[in-house]
Write a structure and sequence with these properties.
heterodimer, A: MetI-like fold, globular, B: mainly alpha, MetI-like fold, 10 helices
Chain lengths: 333, 267
């Protein structure tokens, strides 16, 4: 019995390891066709689901000819396609057929630049918005508020963290975004509104961990500073902040990792278009949203490209979180 | 001057706390106003196909319930391993990996389960949704079990062993009992977290308009349906989405507060 229990618990613990490796390998193998097809250029290519003409080595000069050649092929292949009167119609129909059959004449290319940029920018906006407020809340909870108020406000802030993200999305779309777009102009669905709602979402998370690391400052240090006549601001700036700095940076990075992978709150607000934003008020798309909205319909190379995006997201967030864990939060202990 | 800077700083800090509370108040107020105005008890009696939410609420509970049945034992035994059996590097490696997994993007876990289960099984299913949620839950349960067991004093364990109990007996009968309240709180919070998840379910369980207990087929999910309903143009669909969000949030907050209440009573 003893042995069985010990083996069982070891097996469960190993499961975590297996799961993480499994996630990576599964995503990698599902993304493999897209990785082979697009390589690392995927990351810098802004076109998603775009038809391009493949120029065969024989007639690189004239791509229109290549198209025509392909026309003849498909017409002979497909009995259904009647020889239509107008060339344009044939072209249209063929394009649709080629889409399905992945013919050599044209192919659909997928590039990940837009969702990658969208993910990074929304996360940055969220951080810029949440950081000062979260720090303020943490200082308030740890140093300013009396114990009972700090307890109640602390619970309220943690409840904010418990609200499902889809609710943030709906509230953001119907109530928050109209106000923001009135203030800053532009569309209601945009980088800016998505980033701000994301900021509201990570706010409680960031505030809670920052408060916890501030609370680790030994009371003796604080009291000695007060005894020397320091004001509260000076104690926070010169004693608490330097002491808990590493932990605070770790908490910021953890919040960043959370913001990177957030799907639902952003899905309502980012606009879901594969276009690079020129202004902060332009709609665009992020990796999780691209997956949420396109996974159902995607197949073949398109699906594989989505897995490629998932892999990129997984690797980015893995790196970010490991950095926070191994470097900053370890040091804090 | 120093005092002025101090005052400004304190005011700013209080102000940001107020901002945080204002957002909470704003979201809750919206939910209550919009949710209650479309809320009706018949929502609990009809399925989505008849304009109700019964199948969705039951479905979401079943998904989260099965996820808990898978996730809690695995998470707890892994947590026990890390704290009680594991030595040195391997245990702390697992602890770190589990922390990393806790923050892994939920949509990526959805994609993983899609490739692992949905593709081989030929379609979305309740099982796939429950597994995705279980994967979300495991690291959270590991984390709580680990930290709650670490609070149990060493003397208790030694006393048990001195009485001649085997290590397994000591863990089950003494250590777990001592940490019971904390672990239960953690599990409740983990449950509250997964019951509100949408992203891992989008392409694993999907959702269904009909009442279903068949886990081999697309399974009704409250959160996925909220997403679908909220994106529909008709006002009535959106009102239903608000009512569903209201019910979901009330469930999550009640579970969450119950967890906190238990710990507080203990103290």
């Amino acid at each position: 019995m003893e042995k069985i229990f010990q083996k069982l618990s070891l097996a469960s613990a190993t499961l975590v390891f297996v799961l993480l490796i499994g996630i990576f390998l599964t995503l990698y193998s599902a993304a493999k066709p897209a990785i082979n097809e697009f390589g690392l250029g995927f990351i810098t290519n802004p076109d998603w689901n775009k038809e391009v003409v493949v120029e065969t080595p024989q007639d690189t000069a004239n791509s229109a000819e290549a198209m025509n050649a392909a026309d003849d092929d498909t017409i002979t292949d497909e009995d259904d396609v009647m020889i239509a009167d107008e060339d344009d119609e044939i072209l249209d129909e063929d394009e649709m057929l080629l889409d399905d059959e992945d013919d050599t004449a044209t192919k659909t290319i997928y590039g990940g630049l837009v969702p990658i940029v969208g993910t990074l920018l929304t996360t940055l906006i969220a951080l810029a918005f949440a950081l000062p407020i979260a720090m303020g809340i943490a200082v308030f909870l740890a140093e300013i508020a009396p114990k009972n108020i700090s307890y109640v406000v602390g619970i309220a802030i943690e409840l904010l963290a418990a609200i499902p993200s889809i609710i943030f999305g709906m509230w953001g779309l119907y109530y928050f975004a109209p106000i923001i777009s009135d203030l800053f102009g532009g569309y209601q669905v945009s980088l800016l509104t998505a980033g701000l709602v994301l900021g509201v979402m990570i706010l409680p998370f960031m505030a809670a961990i920052t408060r916890d690391s501030m609370n680790t400052t030994p009371a003796v240090l604080k009291e000695s500073a007060y005894a020397l006549g320091a004001t509260k601001f000076e104690v926070i700036k010169d004693i608490i902040f330097p002491y808990s700095k590493v932990g605070i940076i770790g908490s910021i990075i953890l919040a960043l990792g959370r913001a990177l992978g957030e799907t639902m709150a952003v899905a309502f607000l980012i606009g879901s278009v594969f276009v690079l934003p020129h202004k902060i008020t332009d709609p665009t798309i992020s990796i999780p949203v691209a997956m949420a909205n396109n996974f159902g319909e995607a197949s073949g190379l398109g699906e594989s490209a989505l897995f490629y995006l998932a892999l990129i997201l997984f690797v980015i967030s893995f790196a970010v979180i490991s950095l926070a864990k191994f470097y900053f939060l370890k040091k804090a202990k | 001057m120093r005092l002025l800077v101090n005052k400004i700083f304190l005011a700013l800090s209080i102000f940001s706390a107020l901002i945080g509370l204002a957002f909470l108040g704003w979201i809750l107020a919206t939910l209550f106003l919009k949710g209650l105005s479309s809320f009706h008890f018949s929502l609990f009696l009809n399925d989505l196909v008849d304009g109700g939410l019964r199948n969705l609420i039951v479905g979401q509970m079943i998904l989260a319930g099965i996820a808990s049945l898978i996730g809690i034992p695995l998470g707890m035994t892994a947590g026990i391993y890390i704290q009680e059996y594991g030595q040195g590097k391997y245990a702390s490696l697992i602890r770190d990996l589990s922390d990393i997994m806790m923050s892994a993007p939920s949509i990526v876990i959805g994609a993983f389960v899609y490739a692992l289960m949905v593709v081989p099984m030929g379609g979305t299913s309740g099982w796939a949704g429950a597994v995705a949620l279980a994967i979300m839950m495991i690291p959270v349960v590991i984390n709580t079990t680990d930290s709650m067991l670490s609070l149990v004093p060493r003397e208790l364990r030694e006393a048990g062993i001195a009485l001649g109990a085997s290590k397994y007996k000591v863990i089950i009968d003494i250590v777990i009992k001592a940490a019971k309240v904390g672990i239960m709180t953690g599990i409740l919070l983990a449950f509250a977290r997964i019951i509100g998840e949408t992203a891992p379910l989008l392409f694993t369980s999907e959702t269904s308009n009909y009442f279903s207990l068949n886990l081999n087929d697309s399974f009704p999910s409250l959160t996925v349906s909220i997403y679908d309903l909220a994106n529909e143009p008709e006002e009535s669909s959106r009102d239903l989405a608000w009512a569903a969000s209201f019910i979901l949030t009330v469930m999550v907050l009640i579970i969450n507060l119950t967890g906190r209440f238990i710990t507080r009573n203990k103290k």
